[in-house]
Every structure is written in structure tokens, then in C-alpha cells.
Protein 1
Amino acid sequence: MNSPALSEPILVLNKNWLPIRISTVRRALVLVWKDLARIIEPNNYALYDFESWADLSVAHGEHCVRTVSMQIKIPEVIVLKHCDHFKQPEVIFSRRNIFKRDKNTCQYCGTRLPTEDLTIDHVLPRSKGGSSSWTNCVVACCQCNSKKGNTLLQNLDMKLIKEPQKPPAPMAFSLPIGRRKKSWEHFVSEAYWNIELKD
Ligand SMILES: [Zn+2]
């Protein structure tokens, strides 16, 4: 099979029907052909394996992949049968990403500052067994950081603006808007797209 249509983007859902990434029609058809995924018809949510999809007739003028013996409609969404393929990349736990998650804002007093005027604070101090992790590290201004020092938060007149959490996977920051297909909107909420475009 060789056709420019094979390079078109396709939405990949995990087995719980949550969007996990964008792939190409070529790669998606291979997964379906290997019986690792099913094609979804976005208008009625019907599921197709490779054979039943290839049996669908292609309307005159409709976009398709041509092989020697057949024409295959271009799928736009697939759902994986298992969880193992296309592992979603994790957000790397790094200083840069903590600043990004907390939007350069002190998580105690809410002041937004340039990176060089901020520090990383361990909510439960390291000296008391606090880990270096997404849920225990926050951005803090120098003033709040020195006020807090090695004291436990509950012993101080200080509160976190919000509980620190691991940020969503990087796909949420990198999907090019021009490659979206209309049919994907059945599977991806507007809120999701909005989050995506902020960064
Ligand atoms: Zn502060």
C-alpha cells in the first residue's frame, strides 16, 4: 500500500475510549490488521476489524487507500484492544516542568515571579522524610520559602493555594490544531482541546 492518505492523522483511543495520541493511518491500519485495535465509525460508534472495514464500499469520490486488489476507506479513529501499545509518555519530573506546572507562581502567597526569583519547596521537608516528587514539590518565592524553612505546614500560618499534582501527559501540550478532524470531536471534549491550546 502506498498512498499519501496513509500519512493522514488518526485519533487513537485507549481501551477505555480515552484519547491518548495522534498517529498515522498507516500505523493504525497495521495495528488493526494485527488485531490489536479496532476502527471506530465515528457517526454510529460501530467497531470494525480489518476485514469488515475493508469490506465497506467506498463511495465515488470518497477518500480512500488503494491497493492492487481493493480500496479501503480512510479510518479516522481507532480504539486499542489492550493497553500496552502506544504507551503514553510521562511528563519528566524536572525543575523546568515544576515551574511550568505552577505557572511560575508561589504556591503559598500566589505571587507570580520570574524563574530566577523563585525556588522549589518541599511541602513535607526533606529532613522529615519528604520526597522529591510531583506531589511534594511546589514553586515558592524566596520569602515564603525562608519563612517555611524546615517547619511542617500545619505548624505555620501558611497554606498551599492548591494540592500539587502530577501534570497531564505531554500530548496535551503538543497537538497541532491544524491536524484535528471533525469526527474526533465525538471523542474529545471541548474542555480537553482548550487545555491543550493554552501552552
Ligand atoms: Zn510566596
Note: The two ends are 37 Å apart (CA to CA).
Protein 2
Amino acid sequence: MTSYNVGDNVTTRKPHACGCSSWTVVRVGADYKIKCDNCGHVVMLDSDKFFKVIKVAK
Ligand SMILES: [Zn+2]
């Protein structure tokens, strides 16, 4: 499984409500937190959900 670190940039399959699909990882562990690069909104996801919503690079 691909692992992510705090500060990594991820892209979601669906854009956020603000229209941006670029996010920054702000917390990793049992739960992941990602912050929208456009509006700063933070979402917490468990790891299953996290890997479902992001587009895995390459
Ligand atoms: Zn946003």
C-alpha cells in the first residue's frame, strides 16, 4: 500500500465543494486529515475512506 506523509499533496477523485481537488495531508495514522489547498477546509477520514477518495499518483 502506498503510504503518505504529512505535507504530501494529494488529489481527490471528486473536487471539493469549492471546486479544488488538490489537498495537503496534515495528519496520518489511524485517521488521515487532509486540507483543501484552495479554501483550507480540513476533512478527517479513516484510512479505508482516505484511499477511496484520493487518486493514487501513477
Ligand atoms: Zn475547498
Note: The chain is about 10% helix and 40% strand.
